[in-house]
Amino acid sequence: MDVQQRIKEQVGKNPVVLYMKGTPQFPQCGFSSLAVQVLNACGVNRFYSVNVLEDAAIRQGIKEFANWPTIPQLYVNGEFIGGSDIIREMYESGELQKMLQSVKQQA
Question: Quick check: pTM over 0.85?
Fold first, then answer.
């Protein structure tokens, strides 16, 4: 399976996917840490995460998949949401909490 197919499968099978540097328990950059903190603040404590530092093909492939140059990248119900700045802005406006409400109910 090629990298794009693997990413498509990960995004399609999991309601919340965060491509990040490190893990939710040990983020390896401030932007990834912020993304995890925002998800936790929204009540989403369990989500699928992919440590891009462990797989160079995924690290490059995810940038191409979303046509987005930076990591972290958040996907909710198969839809690309954005990076840490967008996640933070959506959280501050209350939009992210509304989006994640259905996901929390599924868990």
Answer: yes
